[in-house]
Amino acid sequence: MQLIYTKAAPNIEVGHLYEHIFCDFITEQARAKHLFSYVDYHLDARSYYEGYIYIKIETYTSPAVSFFKNLNKLRPQFNNNTINGALLQIMAENRVDIAALDESEVLKTLNAYQITPWKEQASSEKLVQSDREYHPILYKPANMDAFGIIQQSITLQINEDDAIKKSHLLVLFLVVSKAIRSNLQEDITRSSFCFTYEDSFEYDEVTGKVKDINLYRIDKRQSTEITDEGEVAEKLLTTIKQHGFSSRLSESIQQSEEGSDEYPSEAEIVSKLGLSITPDELKNIFSTYNINRVLNNIEVNFTYH
User: Is residue 195 located within the same domain as residue 121?
Assistant: First the structure.
């Protein structure tokens, strides 16, 4: 089920700030209810210069539908940690510095947006637009030396001589690693106040090693103590193993349609792995048992540049 919400936010800069704070909050609340990105939902949020915030949520399970249908009941807190963290995310996203910041006006506007209701839209409806305003946050280009890169690698060593079994493990990894990456992106950007901007995939046929890589941009000057990303990844892997991640991912793939966000396309499988697998064969691969085999043997590592 697809849910689309908009919220009027004529103050463009503060609207963008609210979007970051709100999305960090709702994904954290979703995780507290053991809902996982890619398995239960896929969220896309944007701020538009026309003066509104747009959130599209693809829901794959009934608990996710129930949770995101109550979007207007979810209200984040505005404090130094949430506001400064979101500002750091935006600075990393756009590679900018803050030129001017009126803290009282920012807080006043955030509170105004908090009580402005989210409007549920049909995908065919014209989106709400607001008059543009320019307000209390001004940005300027930043020195590129201010930003560092966190490289996240999800790796699986495949030691399998049987060509068919090997191809199945590779396709399993392609989907399982994408699901894990999707949840790590939420957790790492929220805890380390950074911005995810690029992902890639590597497969070495000689060594049998396959790797999903994700890059985060982070402002190295932030005074906030940076979270240990390795601990965040370890906590996530423990959580997903305890709360039905594998069985729900299996069910999601079995029930999904080609072209949906969580369904691995034939073109993606060919381009990344050089394999050709039929849709029926693909769905048969994704048993809970097979997903657990991959999940229990992957490694997540971080390097810093």
Answer: no
Tell me the backbone φ, ψ of residue 143, rounded to 5 degrees.
-70, 130
For residue 119, what are its two tokens?
A: 């409007």
Q: What is the pLDDT of residues 25-72, one digit of tens each?
A: 999 999 999 999 999 999 999 999 888 999 999 998 899 999 999 999
289, 290, 291, 293: CA torsion to nearest 10? 90
Residues present in the chain in total: 305
Structural domain total, the chain:
2
Of 113, 142, 171, the domain-final residue: 142
CA gap 221, 91 in Å, rounded: 11
Report the distance separating Cα 274 and Cα 180, nearest Å. Answer: 22
Last residue of a domain, one of 94, 111, 142: 142
> Is the domain of 256 the same as that of 297?
yes
Q: Is 117 left (phi over 0), alpha (psi -120 to 50) or beta?
A: beta
Predicted TM-score (pTM) above 0.90? yes
**Could you tell me if 204 and 80 lie in one domain?**
no
Please calculate the CA angle 60-244-233 and round it to the nearest 5 degrees.
95
Burial class (CB in 10 A: 0-12, 13-18, 19+), 152: buried
Mutual angle of helices 163-192 and 245-255, in 10-degree steps = 110
Q: Does 217 lie in the same domain as 130?
A: no
CATH number of domain containing 74:
3.30.70
Q: In what order do the strands lie in the sheet with 2-8?
A: 41-48, 52-59, 2-8, 119-121
Task: Give pLDDT tens digits for 111-159.
Answer: 999 999 999 987 656 666 666 666 789 999 999 899 999 999 999 998 8
User: Other CB atoms closer than 10 Å to residue 191's CB: what's the count?
Assistant: 18
CATH at 265: 3.30.830
